[in-house]
């Protein structure tokens, strides 16, 4: 077992709980990268495969632990990406209502599926 590999995995392992807590606290996916998270997961899988095939030791379990923490953060990112999209649409709708109110009109939101049906007739 390499002490430096173990220290590296512990260092990464200490960072992920803070990232998960930040995601839970802010409830947003802002600043997260889908490609980065997938790349990190891929790297951990490669490390685990290497440990299984060539040098199985206790560091393997650090890889597993880090993989699970990144997976949790990835799931939170997916969830909060959907929430962010919903918030953006709500903000746009609110903005349109305010603009219509300034003009003295009432904004009528017609859902996209109903607009398509109206065009067909």
Brief characterization of the structure:
By secondary structure, the chain is mostly helical. The chain has helices at 3-26, 34-53, 59-102, 112-120.
Give me the strand/helix succession. Answer: HHHH
State which percent range the strand residues make up: under 5%
Distance between the ends: 72 Å
Helix content: over 70%
The global form is: rod-shaped
* Low-confidence sequence ranges: none
Structural class: mainly alpha
Number of E strands? 0
Largest sheet: none
Radius of gyration: 23 Å
Number of helices: 4
- In round numbers, the mean pLDDT is 86
Description:
Helix content is 80%, strand content 0%. It is built from 4 helices and no strands. It has helices at residues 3-26, 34-53, 59-102, 112-120. The longest helix is centred in the middle third of the chain and has 44 residues, at 59-102. The mean pLDDT is 86.
